Amino acid sequence: MYNKVKTWFSASPARALSVGFALIIAAGTVLLMLPLSVRPGQEIGWLDALFTSASATCVTGLVVVDTGTFFTTFGHWVILALVQVGGLGFMTMGTLFALFLRRRVSLKERLILQESLNQANLEGIVRLVRKVIAYALTIEAAGALLFTLRFLPDMSVGKALYFGIFHGVSIFNNAGFDLFGDYRSMANYVSDPFVNILSIALIILGGVGFVVLADLAEYPLRKRLSLHSKVVLTATAGLFLGGALLIFVFEYTNENTLGPLGFGDKVIAALLHSASTRSAGVSTIDIASTRQATQFLMVCLMFVGASPGSTGGGIKTTTFAVLIMAVLTVLRGRQDVVLFRNRLDPERVYKAITITIFSFALVMAATMILSITENHMFMPILFEATSAFATVGLSTGLTPNLSDAGKIIVIVMMFIGRLGPLTLFYAVGSKSKRTLYRHAEGKIIIG
Q: Is 74 exposed, middle or buried (0-12, 13-18, 19+ CB in 10 A)?
């Protein structure tokens, strides 16, 4: 029996990755259930502990209990550790310890790293891991320092440092957890340009992916960017600016959100929430008070999500870009999908279509099930399901009121969203066999 389990576990990197994340979530659940993790007078059930652990490990940020007021300092550090491991990937962290101990990284471990970082080949995978760790720790340290300096006028030195570290790590990893209490996220800083701009910068740096960060770091020497980086940066900029413009227009006169703010504050708030929908979950306005058009826009932005090899979820910006170009290719009557004068392999286009349809089906299925288990309107339910799948963490207020069945559905969606639907499919499915023949060509009417 043991040998069969071991064989099944090691049969594919996707399977090992899935089981590894599940074990981390289980360990986090146990730690969060300890009396040491919750404040005196508070109790946490296994399902709420599992939900919080899954949300942290999957860098989502949806919460059923208020992080700042419910958990102790120990509980906060457990959550932050889960966010760090979940954001960088447990195999990346494991490789860090292996390198520290001067232990050789095995082929099997390299294959799991390849799957974890969404790389096409094994070449230079350990070198990339070193860069991932260096970039992540450097950016998190800078973010923590800057947040600490900003929080110093508002709180004691120790608390400012504590809050600075927590929010620097949480926001860079696109996790969305905060310590301000009362489910307010960062509402007190809605008119603070320093906090908003720093948050936007950390969100984008965490969301573009470590491959792009490595490319940008080497740009002064090479004077060129890879096709992947060009597509990611272009798609990210377009979605970020386009989303901010629409949020600004939709909410400009809404007295419950942007209405009372000055023009500059409205612009900054719109930019922050456009960036946040990409997978971060940071908010300075009440999402439940936004107009339905804004909420649906956020659903669309969340569904696209961040970029491959990043700390975020969603179908990814590259998938979205390939789909747009595939549509334009058909409309122009051409055969090849071309990005920046590079022709894409049809297999890449098929994969983009597969990921999108699979993801759309998952979100719709979760929405329908939640519509049965939860007594709420359709839009908050769709928003919740999409936020969970894209590991965003924004909510219209439904999360704390979820039924037990609803919590389980959201946990499953967060887990699938963090791993990626195709990774999970490859983990549970059997290994595909290459066909040695092609069927005769047939014709059907499309459109």
A: middle
Give the C-alpha distances (Å, rounded to integers) separating 433 from 10, 18, 107, 257, 437.
18, 22, 23, 54, 12
Please answer whether residues 55 and 414 qualify as being in contact, where contact means their C-beta atoms are separated by less than 8 angstroms. Answer: yes
Secondary structure in 3-state letters for 356-421: HHHHHHHHHHHHHHHHHHCCCCHHHHHHHHHHHHCCCCCCCCCHHHCCHHHHHHHHHHHHHHHHCH
pLDDT band at 101; cut points 50, 70, 90? very low
42: Cβ contacts below 8 Å, ≥ 6 apart: 70
CA 232 to chain centre: 15
| DSSP-based three-state secondary structure for 432 | coil
Read off the pLDDT of residues 415-427 as tens digits, 9 standing for 90 and up. Answer: 988 887 776 666 5
Q: Residue 330 and residue 183: Cα distance in Å, rounded?
A: 46
Is 340 buried (19+), middle (13-18) or exposed (0-12) by CB count in 10 A?
A: exposed
d(CA 229, CA 342): 13
Q: List beta partners, residue 71.
A: 38
CA 110 – CA 106 distance, rounded (Å): 6
Place of tokens 């910068």: 201
Q: How many CA atoms lie within 13 A of 48 on its CB side?
A: 20
Give me the half-sphere count of Cα atoms (radius 13 Å) on the Cβ side of residue 343.
Answer: 5
Average pLDDT along the chain: 84
Instruction: State the DSSP H helix or E strand holding residue 339, giving kind and residue range, or none if neither.
Output: strand 338-339
The residues that bridge with 342 in the sheet, in sequence order, are 339
Separation of alpha carbons 261 and 105, rounded Å: 53
User: Are 207 and 310 spatial neighbours (Cβ–Cβ below 8 Å)?
Assistant: yes
Enter the pTM of the model.
Answer: 0.89
Helices (H) and strands (E) in the chain, counts: 19, 2
